[in-house]
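Objective 1b: paired records.
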Amino acid sequence: MCKTDMTDQDFVAHSVCDDPNINLLMTNTDYFVSLYETLHRKMPFFGSGIEESLERIPEEHLHRPVGHRTIAQLLAHMIAWREDLIKRLHELPREKIEINSPEDWPDATGKTKADFLRAFADTKVELQKGLEKYDVSKMYDLVHPDYDYINVNILEGGAQHDIYHIGQVNMLAAILRELEEAKE
């Protein structure tokens, strides 16, 4: 039986678990490395991996809007947040990304599928390098005194963010495919 207690005073999580395998997950970064491997492989548990998803999308669909977004905008947004996490992991200076700002939703004009595939491959490598050297003793520290979440939330959140948005990418791709088929 395992549980994680969060104290009201300092928001530091404490793992209480009889299973040594679970405690091992909570004290090293292999789990997070495996999350990013999962995002990039074919047929992960949540649907389609990043490259698998992009391979099926025709180049001309990348910049076609569905509602107020394009697939290219979603991909650029994912890359922006991956780059932010990479800077955190490598302890590099970074600007705070304001929600709905140009940094949050970078201009994707002119970006090709090859550009995005390369960016995802590069950020995967940099995320894994950052995770390999990450000081796990900081995993349960607050991200910042102004926020009530800890570093492990950021590490998990990066993968969750990718899963969420690759789902949106696949939904937009399906809508565009249906629109294309309806024209024929």
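Objective 1b, second protein:
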Amino acid sequence: MNELITLARPYARASFEHAYATKALVQWSNMLAILAAASEENVVNNLLSSPKVTAKEKAAQLIGLCGEIIDDSMERFLILLAENGRLSLLPQIKQSFENLRAQQEKLLDIELHTAFPLDEDMKQTLIDKISTDLDSRVSATVNVDKTLIG
């Protein structure tokens, strides 16, 4: 898995830089999410991993499948991935893209583990404090674990 992330990283970086420069981070995030989900479907996965299908055909099939959901720049990106035999990395590219986006937007997704349930006011107070301390926007999930007290 780490190897796949490593292979995906330069493509994620390039797509992120393009999306950032064109002020299309949300659009690219959505397109990558759809493409990553599609690429994990058995039929599509079999197509992308088939040695009998040319890179050009793989890109054309994926572009045709997604139709109007993707724009011209994403089509060119998919063709590049196909030419380099990297279409199967779409889930990892999407994951790395989202990591870069979260860093850019200073967004943290955290888990709070507490020994007792928190009311909404207490939860929001903690989120606000963490946001201020880390100079980031924070999204939190609260998990109650009574074993923390012992």
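The mean pLDDT is 91. Helices lie at 2-21, 25-39, 42-49, 55-66, 72-83, 90-104, 120-134.
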